[in-house]
Amino acid sequence: MLHALMNLLSSCFRPFGRHSEDRVDSVNGNGFGGKEGLLWFRDLGKYGSGDFSMAVVQANQVLEDQSQIESGPFGTFVGVYDGHGGPDAARYVCDHLFPHFQAIAAETQGVVTRETIERAFRLTEEGFTAQVSELWSTRPQIATVGSCCLVGVISRQTLFVANLGDSRVVLGKKVGNTGGTAAIQLSKEHNANFEEIRQELKELHPHDPQIVILKHGVWRVKGIIQVSRSIGDLYMKNAQYNREPINGKFRLPEPMNMPILTANPSIIVHPLHPNDSFLIFASDGLWEHLSNEKAVDIVQNHPRVGIAKRLVKAALQEAARKREMRYADLQKIDKMVRRHFHDDITVIVLFLNHDLISRGTVQDPPLSIRCALQH
């Protein structure tokens, strides 16, 4: 029983790359990872600019969320990848986006720019497109798989945030000497339920009156998908994949004259300020149940140890309350059935140590950790 549990945990929090065994040992010394039913977590660890906490809870039959933290000479890279239609795209992004980023940053001696991140996204999209092309004859439904993609990079006292889809990063910022902490959303969400996104789509597709359709109270792009940007979803980007044998619900009734979705991320550049206290990166499963302010309040008013797990549990408790059931009863529901109550949820909290940030401290040994459940 113990052996099986350890294998399970190692699949969730396994690092990758060279010297991976050394890296995971260095992390284990800083915190505790564990499992509670469908909830996996690492309570506290060290990264290049402070402490981190991470957690994920599964709802789908196969976990569609993936996430990672990488910290080394270049700074720190955080990724939250919320898949849809299956796990393939999120897993591909988790395997390839950071290596692309690292290789591109090396070309400029570690200097990170918007272009560094844009190129990494572009290469990842091209790579997944090539995979879909290779598998089209044997696994055509992979053309309907995609992933939202939220990335944060801390480099030289600057935070870069790049986003596709509707995951979100929220900054907890100290308000002067009041003792209060403000919640500041740093990412832009690409979801058709926002008027701004619907207007953006209409401007990009002026001759398509059906570019966004309201179905059962939810706005969807072409009446099919809520997000307007993603990695993958080739059936909405290339006409050669929007045809049989993919499922009829994904096929458009009219010819596709241009890509409907895009993999071009929105990027913000935020110079880090001493009042910037912590960052909450999470898939939309968390934000469906917690407001920005509520999440920041929880982090501000509780110990760092286990804070990501606490956020996930707060969201699950709210999901249970909405269905007029007890949290304890929700915990007894198995994966797949759970999806009727909440989504897969991934949370990573980064606490910012500005002494380390200002000194440009290098993580040694490098940190490489990801949650990549295979079941």
UniProtKB/TrEMBL annotation:
It comes from the Eukaryota. InterPro entries: PP2C (IPR015655), PP2C_BS (IPR000222), PPM-type-like_dom_sf (IPR036457), PPM-type_phosphatase-like_dom (IPR001932). Its EC number is 3.1.3.16. Residues 51-352 form the PPM-type phosphatase domain. Pfam families: PP2C. It catalyses: O-phospho-L-seryl-[protein] + H2O = L-seryl-[protein] + phosphate; O-phospho-L-threonyl-[protein] + H2O = L-threonyl-[protein] + phosphate. Its cofactor is Mn(2+); Mg(2+). Keywords: Hydrolase, Magnesium, Manganese, Metal-binding, Protein phosphatase. It is an enzyme of class 3 (hydrolase). The keyword Hydrolase applies. Coiled coil: none annotated. GO terms for molecular function: metal ion binding; protein serine/threonine phosphatase activity. Belongs to the PP2C family. This is protein-serine/threonine phosphatase. It comes from Citrus clementina. The lineage of its organism: Eukaryota, Viridiplantae, Streptophyta, Embryophyta, Tracheophyta.
